[in-house]
Amino acid sequence: MLSKQEIASLNFTRRHFEFIACTLGEIEDNESRESVLADTCIRLRDTHPRFDEKRFRARVNEVHLQCWKD
Description:
The chain is mainly alpha-helical. 69% of the residues lie in helices and 0% in strands. The chain has 4 helices and no strands.
């Protein structure tokens, strides 16, 4: 696992966050997705001072709904 300092040095951009949100949104099982999402948000908080967890979670849910709608 990366340290907080290593995570902060990654210099994530909006595209990185979008990629991660799309990847998480593709997880079909709700319980698994929420578990991974919660852990991911904890780590992402240290990547950028303006990381918006609420907005990130909304994007994950939006992607999920698009992927699994029938």
